[in-house]
Each structure stands twice: as C-alpha cells, then as structure tokens.
Design a protein that fits this description.
The chain has 18 helices and 18 strands. With 474 residues, it is an alpha+beta fold. Strand 1 (5-9) and strand 2 (12-16) form a beta hairpin.
Length: 474
C-alpha cells in the first residue's frame, strides 16, 4: 500500500501499512497489542475473537457483534471498533459479576468473547429478553466451564439488570449508568458522522474481489497473497426490503440479521425469523449477506433453499444495465452459475403470497444449530378446497447445487391433498436428486431425509392427515 490506514485507538493515532485484506483480529492483537481479544479457531466458530463494530444505519447508531477473524481491516473504515479493553471499567459490570457469582468462568479464555456478545445484544435495537440473551451468546464456545453455569449467569443478570428496554440512546444511557460502557460512547455517533467516506484504493494490478459479508470468502482467502485487492460493497441504503408492484424486493447486501428482524417479511411469513435462527451464530448472521449466500453456491445454502421455494428472480447489474434470471435457472453445476464476470448480484425479488398459502422450511443437520444442513427443504403452496393450486419445492444437500424440484412440483399442481398423492410425489422427488455419500451422511440416508422432510411439510400444513408407520416408512 502507498498510503497508511489511520486508526484512532484510545484517543491516540495509529498508522498501519497493512493491506485492507488483513484480518481485524491480526490487527487488533499484533498492531494494537490489545490481546484481550483471543485467537481461537480462526473460522468464526468459537466466538473467542468477538468484537463490536458500530456504525450509522438509517440515521442512528447501531452495534453488531462480529468474529474479528473473518473481518478484513478495510471493512471497519468509518466504524466504531470496540474490543474487551474498550468496555472494561474500574468496577465489574453486572454481567461480569454474574459470571463470577455463578461459577461461569474457569480458564477465562472464552470469557471476553462472551462479554462482547452480551454487550452487543444489550446495545442492539431489539426488545431485551432471556431467550434473546441466550441466543446472542450461542456462537461462543466455552468447553471447560460448562454451559449451564453460563446460562445461570445470563438468567440472574437478566432478572436483575434493570436496563432500559427502550432501544437507542435511552438504552445506551442506561448501560453507561450501570457500568457496562464508558461515558465516551455518548459522543460516538457524532464522531462517526464526521468521518469522510473511504476512497477507492487502486488495485495496482492485484486480483480484485468483491466483498460484502465475507463469512466464507475470508476462510478461502487465508492461503491467498496478502496484496489481494478487496472492493467493499458497503453502500448504505435506507430501505433494503421493500414491496414494489406486488413483489418483495430485497437488496443483495442484506445481512441475515436484517432479514430476521424485518417486520415486512414477518407480515407475510411469521416464522421467517425462526427459520433463519438455524443459520450460523449471531456473529455470522450479523455479517453474512443474501448475495453472498447465493453466489457462494453451496449445495445446502439455507437462504437459497428458502428463496427457491418462493420462485425468486435475481437482478444482475453490469454498470448501468440490469439482467434478470430466475434463481432456479441460475445454477449450472457445482459452484457454477449464470453470471458474467463483470456482473454483480444487485437484488432478489419474488411475488407477494396470495390467498390461502403455506410456507415452510425444514433443515436436518448433525447439530440443531451452528451447522451445515445434511439435507434441507422449503415449500410454498397455495391450496383451495383440498386441492393444490400452486406449489414450489426446493431441496438442498442432495445435488451439486441448490435444487428446485421441478417435476415434483408439476406432479402436485392441481392434485388433491391425499396421502397417496404425497407418497407418489415423494417418489418423483427421489428421481430428481443425486445425493452423494460424504461426512454429512450416506446417499441412502439423504434420500430418506428428503422424503421425510417432504412429508413433514404436508403434515405441518394438514395435521388431519393420518400418520402411521406405513406412511412414514413405506
């Protein structure tokens, strides 16, 4: 780099000539010597390296907990980076005291990450609850202490914290008063607004990579040259989810967290948030984007699976030109898709649901949470008088790419909802898939899983269907 990256750390100017592609974790520990942030798995799984990144969103200040091992240095320009050293006070915070009182600290290696995850939750714009607090630290592994002690600490803290339930500045004032944050947090919003936008750095012939969330890309880049040039797709938009001319329109830069918290999506799909809770940890959901999940093209991609069943269309942008392609036609093979090199995914859109409609997502993995699906499946259905009038079905983990079950959907359309038709449709689905035996299960196991997930969709929608051993194991 020709020019240094300038940081203000604890009121002092810090200059570094490190590449913007260097991980935030390495910068924090090796350049700033702030070693309270721990280096664990370096894959975003353990949460030991959790920090907070604050920024201006929709006119207000918001903080998100992230895995610093997956964040490139250039991503935090114009942001407020908070490590464990930045929240420590002369006295312990109520949550730190709760961890000690409940015996929830042993070696202490994972404790800073847990504290940062909890602080991020308390600073969020959500209504505070015990369930939400437990979920917030779900991405923090702590093998030697035992999770029951940590959960007890969260419970006792949440019952006695008396933190303002009103989000925003009122919440921050309450956290400062209770000893969670230093008073300097009150000035951060104005300071961030005064920072000039990041100028696009010249690639100087280095390989250029478009970068948004990077939760998978940063893992692949560990063995790449350090001079790789990242083009950050960080433009802020006031509305990333809108309804336009009878369509939901979603910006490709949407994070999973933003989708989970969208009241607009929940208005049509009340369980949408619970489906996405099966997508990684909170730290990963805060970073991972819709566009990244689609273009990464994992055969078991959760978001792709959901939007395949909603018959979504992608909008690909190339300078001032747009091209549309249906999501079900986007994938051409393993990690191959219908996108030209100069195009980038801009938006995803799908029709607003109508009439008597049903939508469901099912996922089977070795762990219920924080795991990649062995097999997943989604279904959208419109039914009338016991007949299926419209249907879309997807399947993941059973082909080289996320699969739309075209022939199965064609079979179900305009058929009566009976066990016989469901059984026959499940047989057709078996002819469309081509699973392989791997670490997530054998071919036979995956075939059985998909069959059972298709049955689960229908039994959820129509519990009056008779369930017997013949249906489940025929």
């Amino acid at each position: 780099m020709d020019n240094p990256i300038i940081f203000i750390s604890n009121g002092k100017e810090v200059r570094t000539f490190l590449s913007p592609a260097v991980t935030l974790l390495d910068f924090i520990r090796k350049e700033l010597n702030l070693t309270g942030t721990k280096e664990g798995c370096r894959e975003g799984d353990c949460g030991a390296c959790t920090v907070l990144v604050g920024g201006i969103e929709n006119g207000g200040l918001f903080y998100r907990a992230v895995n610093s091992c997956l964040v490139p240095l250039g991503m935090v320009h114009g942001k407020h980076l908070v490590t464990i050293e930045g929240v420590n006070q002369k006295a312990l915070s109520p949550f730190q005291e709760a961890l000690i009182n409940e015996g929830a600290i042993q070696c202490g290696f994972c404790t800073p990450g847990i504290i940062m995850s909890m602080t991020g939750y308390l600073l969020s714009d959500r209504y505070l609850s015990l369930e939400g607090a437990i979920d917030a630290i779900g991405g923090n592994i702590c093998r030697c202490t035992g999770y029951e002690a940590i959960k007890r600490a969260v419970y006792s803290f949440m019952m006695e914290s008396e933190i303002s339930l009103e989000a925003g500045r009122k919440r921050m004032e309450s956290l400062i008063e209770k000893g969670f944050l230093p008073f300097s947090f009150m000035n951060i919003e104005q300071m961030l607004k005064e920072i000039a936008p990041l100028k696009t750095l010249s690639s100087n012939g280095s390989p250029e990579v478009l970068f948004a969330g990077g939760t998978d890309l940063m893992l692949k880049m560990r063995d790449r040259p350090p001079d790789i040039h990242l083009h950050f797709l960080t433009e802020e938009k006031e509305e990333k989810i809108i309804i336009e001319k009878g369509f939901f329109v979603l910006d490709a830069g949407l994070s999973v967290t933003e989708m989970m918290n969208s009241e607009l999506l929940k208005s049509s799909f009340p369980e949408f948030g619970s489906y996405l809770r099966l997508f990684g940890s909170e730290q990963i959901r805060n970073m991972a984007t819709l566009g990244g999940n689609i273009v990464n093209a994992s055969p078991a991609a959760d978001l792709v699976n959901i939007f395949l069943a909603l018959d979504a269309t992608l909008v690909l942008k190339n300078k001032n030109e747009n091209r549309e392609v249906t999501l079900k036609d986007f994938y051409l093979g393993y990690k191959q898709f219908d996108k030209k090199g100069s195009e980038r995914l801009s938006k995803l859109r799908f029709l607003l649901p109508e009439g008597n409609y049903f939508f469901n997502y099912e996922k089977i993995s070795r762990r219920q949470h924080l795991d990649i699906a062995s097999v997943n499946s989604s279904i959208y259905m419109e039914a009338e008088d016991g007949f299926i009038r419209k249907i879309h079905i997807s399947a993941g983990g059973v082909a080289p790419f996320p699969l739309y079950l075209k022939e199965t959907a064609q079979f179900f359309k305009d058929r009566q909802i009976t066990y016989e038709n469901i059984r026959d449709g499940a047989l057709i689905a078996q002819s469309e898939i081509s699973p392989i035996s791997d670490i997530r299960g054998s071919e036979e196991y995956k075939r059985l899983l998909l069959r059972q997930l298709l049955l689960a969709h229908f039994f959820k929608f129509f519990p009056e269907l008779t369930i017997s051993a013949e249906i489940l194991f025929a």
